[in-house]
Queue: 3 jobs
Job 1
Amino acid sequence: MKRLLIISHTGHQQLENGQVAGWGPTINEINFLSGHWDEIVHIACLEKTAPKGSSLPYTAPNIRFVPIPTFGGKKLSQKADIIWKAPGILRTISNELKGTSAVQLRLPMGIGLFLLPFFAFQYRRPYTLWVKYANNWGAPSPPPGYRLQRWLLKQNFTRCKVTINGFWPKQQEHCLSFENPCLQEKEIADFAEIALAKPHHPPFRLIFIGRLEKEKGIYEFLDALEGPDSDLTLIRHIDFVGAGPLEQVIRARLTSKTPYTLHGFLPKEKVFKILQDAHFLVLPSHSEGFPKVIAEAAAFGVIPVVSDVGSIPHYIQHEENGYVWAFKKGPITFGSVLQQALKASPQKRAVLKNRLLQLAHKFTFERYAMRIENEILNPAACD
């Protein structure tokens, strides 16, 4: 029996009908992979909260969710709470390992600090283990827990493949550069028709997708709209998809001269509905791995105006297929980069849009599943 065990900290919530729903991007990925396995078991956190707007249920009968308690937090007491929860979590994982043919451990996360040693000391593994590291592999100063997990993975103590975002200097042989999937080939074909038919002239519709917090560059975006060189006549509407602590800051700083909508978190279908009409994706993040929203926007020909953090510049090059702000690397402000994008010629925008449509093919579930089969589940994948 071909059985995949996934271990993550993905938040899940109970629906009124008894079903369980989880964070949309992860659930979409697992729903697709279910067609390639006899059974998928997902060990992840069950929260005592209402479902979020981006939460989705599992759609395949061969997926089984196994709950573990939530863990971690900003307070020291919340972090230390993992110690008391660790034995129960390890017991759950040990029970589900029986009969498993492959294990995907999704890191970094708090329990990764004891799960990496747990798997490292299992010398005779009857299953293939691989780690999916979703954070910024090249971050110069990650949080201490993330840094330790990354170091352990680089040393390959767990003796397995590690899939990472981007391409990095001195990248170890067991670390594979994998695109994070979010699209299907059929979707890309349908979206390309929409993108090519979409008028691409001012005033433009801008979209921001992500948590409304400082780390996502909300202040830089607002500053760009208020700068002395800002031409608001080029902007028709701004959509903020996401929620966070800076929602009130956005309300206070944006005026009637800049029409906007705060949507909160939305399911994938509603985000795609906005992307059909959008022209620019704005994401001046301070830290990222590679946001799936860039690939999803690319499928609709939505030009990214982004920062050069994580592996973003490995896929988006300034004036080649988007606009890239050199975050903390010079005097150029995000506002000047945004204005450059908005004032580009129609011919330039058309070239960028066509290149983005080609880029989207790298982020398909079909390609992801094929690479898992050929590069990870191959008998030579692990030492």
Job 2
Amino acid sequence: MKLGFGHKLLIIFFFMVMVTSLWPNNIYLLVIFSIITYFILPIQKWWNVSCILLLIFSLLYAFMEYFNMEVGSGFILLSHIFTPVAFYRFGNWIMSSLNNNHTRLVFIFFTILSYLFPLFILTAHDISLVGFINESRKLNAYGDYNISAATLYGLMLAFGIGCVSMLFTKEKNFYLRISYIILSFLAMIAVIHLVNRTGIVLFVVCILVSFVVSTKLNIDKIIPAIIVLILFFIIIKVSIINNIDVINAYSYRESDSSSNVTEIGGRSEIWLDAINKLITHPFGWERIRYAHNLWLDIARIGGWLALMPFLILTIIAFKNIFFILKRKMFSSDILLVTIFVATFLNASVEPVIEGSMSFFSLMLMFWGMIESAALEKRIIKNKNIFK
């Protein structure tokens, strides 16, 4: 599809939003970009059940947030109203516009690179100051503005970790493939620098998922994939894991009873408390602490009213993923699956909307891309049936 001038400007603005992900005023760009999409993208297209569910969710979430006096500024409220649907539709549109595997891979690569670029710069600067490990788990951004790695940075890095699936794909473009591998490697350096255990788990899960999906457990494909995997882990072990500071830092975190991994960093108790409150407070409750789970944090703000449409949307997203897995998959499809897995798991253990609206928006954009990919495969399936 040939892109018009307005569509090209929209894509440029999108990358501006991504590359300013750590800018404190990024919320203004998120809102402006979201509003612009309503004018540039055709109103009659990409309005489906998923978008309607997101619109209902956004309106109810914003209403309950305002009603319960949980919102800090008008622009934050506007972002909660306009941004989810806008990014989802943008994901639908971009996947339909970039109608081949290569251009989709290029777009996804530059999206994640621009989104993580400020974090990579901060990490490199921090390593030069404090060494390879930062046990304080904070990076100094914009003077004295510190953000804990356990919230914003850990969420952001999930997108980079999801790129590790390019290790096993059949992508023929060597430079594009190696670029993705380097991107995932840089994400892991940031994860280890900030002693982030969730990132390690996500990395292992994404490796396993992409290995199974790409090889289909076919013996002819498994052996080359294992060789690539061994070489990759040797590089990581030699360059990172052998560092004694890394071992000591993770050992210390694990020995800390307040963040023991068997209790998922103390989150299991928080989740049980949130589930109990959801039963006793169906319209939301006052925040004492985050629930550290996207769906439970939505329930805390908007109760069952906001939670239900988003739960249905989540089920639709999983149905789309499973449908893609059953069909012939290109490297961009495998990449979308592992990014979905990484971001979904991270959203399950962190406060998302209040932690990072840019992460939530980008995650929904990928859900929209996944829906378009699944729709394409359904169309192909139906054509084959009627042949």
Job 3
Amino acid sequence: MRATFATEHTPGRVNEDAVAVGDGWAFILDGATARAGVVSGCVHDVRWLASTLAGELAQRLLGSQQTLPALPALPDLLAESIQATCRQHGPDCDLSNPNSPSSTAVIARWTSEEFEYLVLADSPLILDLGRTIRPIIDDRIAHLPDYSADGVARSRNQPGGFWVASTNPDAAYQAVTGSVPADEVHRAALLSDGASRLVEQFGVLDWLGLVDLLDKPGPAELIRRTRAAERAEAPEMAARRQEKRHDDATAILLRR
């Protein structure tokens, strides 16, 4: 499959997304921006977590290609990457703090036989299977009983709550995973939640329209139109939805 991608930071901030594409694999990690006033217990910021975890995951995906046809499972690779990232924290980092820096993950891996995926938290994967568009979405964070800072902390990486890549490798085994025959996948879109907004928040596209936009004219145009929609929306509307007005946006299109 051929891959094209683009990423852009939130205006005025550093980019907390991480993106990587290799021979037969691709992923996006969307670092969770820390809420103001929340103590993470860690000397590292979210950007460090996303970039460090991305390096560990890319290394393992690249290495796993040498094991064809017996590829290790994607949850195993993500769990190992989380463990390795934890080892890079220092003694001043409290890894038991539920507000430790965290990230979503959307991973795709394909061979001539199979297209595999892993989706953890709110970074979706959209599969174009020809006659069918199949969104792969982990929506558990949309169903929390309490969205206060304390409520989210109590639900993070807990049964009945939601799961993210942070300090608990077991989160990898709570991801939405699956596979389809490779020859059924015409196109696939990997998205950070900042790049899915034209569908999920603004409702100006459906998933097919978003994949078509990624295909032509391309990922950069998707992000440009997303920024335009963000600027056009009244600030109070974003506040009412308890959403940031802008967000880092990263999108990958895979095409046969």
